[in-house]
Amino acid sequence: MRKYEKYKKSGVQWIGEIPQNWFVSKIKYSTYVKGRVGWKGLKSSEFLEEGYAYLVTGTDFNSGKIDWKNCYSIDVKRYEEDPYIQLHSDDLLITKDGTIGKVAHIDKLKKPTCLNSGIFVVRPLNKKLYSKFLYYILISNLFKDFFDFNSTGATILHLYQNVFEKFDFPIPSVLEQTQIAKFLDYKTAQIDAIINKKEQLIEKLKLQRQAIINEAVTGKKIWNGNSWSKPKEVKDSGIDWLGNIPKHWTFSKAKRNTYMKGRIGWQGLKQDEFIEEGPFLITGMNFKDGVIRWDEVYHISQERYDQAPEIQLRDGDVLMTKDGTIGKLLFVENLPGPASLNSHLLVLRCTDGSYIPKFLYYQLMSQLFIDHIELHKTGTTFFGITQEAVGKYQILLPSINEQEQIIKYIESKLLIINELSQKVKKQIGKLKQYRQSIISEAVTGKIDLRDWKQPS
Length: 456
What we know:
alpha+beta; four-stranded antiparallel beta sheet; 28 strands; elongated; 33% helix
């Protein structure tokens, strides 16, 4: 794409050069900015499923828009007590707490709407600023660069209004703003459609991964010495969805052949005892998709490690989260040093040689164990499963030789799926970078879009 004929210095570090006929303005000179100050005694019981007005929070933002189905409502009295944060069609919203800088554009209000705390409404003051152009400014790298430039290096938990109002951004004519916004609507929709298809592929690969594990650990196919095929002799498993299993396979309750331990209390351990060196202290937050991020794991003193020998880890242990996100799994191998468990985790370890630890790891990934969790979990908003309930799980047991073959089969299949999944994830990452690059180039005038026309 072509560039403008002439450029000039913007005078702003995070903007650089802009076209000759553009100018720079601060948010406070060009927009109305307001956030909710206090709630005047509002109680959670006043959040309504149906009511006079919507109450928008940052959790209602979805891909640059408001998910109205997710919004709570409030009555007319609560809506009218603060007219400064009553929203209009074409308003912009930006989060100032939590995940800072999430932006949403309101196309058209469905009914009266106001803000919860944690959000600014940003509204152009006059017709010289097109709201959708400002939306792209706020989601561009410009705002991120401004935010980084004004940070002190510490973790920022709040975007203050007096800081946000200092944000400088480039402004072309309204005609150019409209043209740029139309181009970006078209271009980002194209890119998002490709990203969406690739994300659907990731989900299909996850389903395929799950199907391979389910099939292998429940005996739908078995190794006959030369190839994988359906078992010739079967028996009823006694579990509805599972159906038949190979005749020579057996069940055993986990409590009969598995050592299970979690941390009981902390003996007064305080946060300031989490240190940079020493034995590792693993939490469920430290692993994802069966991989542990050792560089993120805290450490504890040797004395604290020695206090709980029953949860000192070994290679070959299986770890499982038992609270919150139940059933996240980790197979422990190549321990880089002594390691112990934080709360909310169970260590599982075979006690009688009836199974290979990695076979248990894969079986706990299967639908068989997922259903067991659903049946036995407790809680209403924060779910958990007890050690006793895990002990009731019936482990399916083929011979050790079959377990070895099953592990080899699963890992050979998952290797292909994981490689493809990583390749697609990298493609998605590059597409998102390209999307950001296009937005930033367009809103700073690095490309001239005055003559652009949407293809038919």
